[in-house]
């Protein structure tokens, strides 16, 4: 089934000019980038986005990292897009990520792991709406 999922190319990756290389992996996996914008996330945006992790010990560090440099927010579309992108990203900790995944190829460590992808279709909808309107998305 054709789905949409939300992606972020994180500061560690934009700082190293990896936007194009990551997009090549995304497109190579058959996912279409149907919306994309480079932004500097505000502290409020990052706090809200990662609200589910507010009680975790790394929350402060996470918010700090996400606001430390520009990010690229994206909407990806394709067959089974949410699960497919999770697979293409690889494990949260790059040491555990499979060969060929974005995190295996590019991530520095668990905190600087280059990309975010929604973990459910419900969250994908919520996350897309935080950064894009319907008019921004051209499928
Ligand atoms: P994301 O939500 O960014 O796509 P994920 O779903 O693989 O990644 P989550 O468990 O949702 O992983 O954690 C959100 C983010 O918090 C991770 O991507 C990572 O950057 C950061 N994070 C997770 N665990 C740790 C940790 N132990 N130390 C530092 N940062 C962490
Ligand atoms: Mg997550």
Q: Spans with pLDDT under 50 lasting ≥5 residues?
A: none
Q: Rg from C-alpha positions? A: 14 Å
Helix count from the secondary structure assignment = 7
**Assembly level:** single chain
Helix/strand structural class: alpha+beta
For the sheet with most strands, the description reads: 4 strands, antiparallel
Return the string of H and E elements.
Answer: EHHEHHEHHEH
Q: Bound compounds, please?
A: adenosine-5'-triphosphate, magnesium ion
Strand content: 15-25%
Strand order of the largest sheet: 2-3-1-4
Output mean pLDDT: 98
Specify the overall morphology.
globular
- Kindly, what is the distance between the CA atoms of the first and last residues, rounded to a whole number of angstroms? 15 Å
Helix content: 25-40%
Number of strands: 4
Overview of this protein structure:
- By secondary structure, the protein is an alpha+beta fold.
- Helix content is 40%, strand content 20%.
- The chain is globular.
- The model has no long low-confidence stretch (mean pLDDT 98).
- The structure holds adenosine-5'-triphosphate and magnesium ion.
